[in-house]
């Protein structure tokens, strides 16, 4: 199989390393707007650097992996669809609903495959949680708590392009809540704080956010996120039912310290970032994509999943700005 990889930034480089050693990938072609960076990654992974995206399509590939800047995602998805190529794309499809819906329409018209990069669906802990919910071991699920805490904020220049904390960061929590519980969000109430550095206020963003979500069966969920967690990278989910409760992401690298005299010892090797925490999941999602391309697996995360997560994020942003609960029915869908 010949794969074209578009984008060789941090996540693109990781994907190049994974793809270059995959047993089903016979050739890998990489490109980036930074030609020197693409050449460096190509040399590092034994792949071929293409001068531009045009060559990725012209040279003939069996599928494309999109890890470019977010602003290019929708166009590249549409271009892959028109070329009849299966595509894997990092989230999001676009930073707004019109762009997302337009790209999805092109995929539907072409009848091609689009798999979105919500890597938590391939994490062992979240997979186990999903199975536990469905097994009935928790009894009636009544409460879900999700936490995402980055150790440090992104560069100031990234913030205006990110879509904001709900679309850029919490969208992962929104997707995984739907996937683990099997339920849909019907209403959100969101708030956020921009009390940190001025760059967040200047970008119209917040550095810390909290959301209360009501699911369609009455389950209540909370999701919090912050760009400032000096203890390390912390991503967790707690699921509480009438019979039991479980936690995802609680291990010997979770950057949290108990104040109890007999509590667990302080973690001395916390997760430094998302790539380290979710490396196996990133590998698993690319392996799944290759199986999808080969016809051996149904698409585990199609574009409609990304649309639903984005709709929740859009509802949160509206709720924050208007200081009111927002029903998902207010947010346009497919």
TrEMBL record:
Domain GFO/IDH/MocA-like oxidoreductase: 126-242
Domain of life: Bacteria
Keywords: Oxidoreductase
Pfam families: GFO_IDH_MocA, GFO_IDH_MocA_C3
Coiled-coil blocks: none
Domain Gfo/Idh/MocA-like oxidoreductase N-terminal: 1-118
Gene Ontology MF, one: oxidoreductase activity
Keyword field contains Oxidoreductase: yes
Family membership noted in the UniProt record: Belongs to the Gfo/Idh/MocA family.
Protein name per UniProt: Gfo/Idh/MocA family oxidoreductase
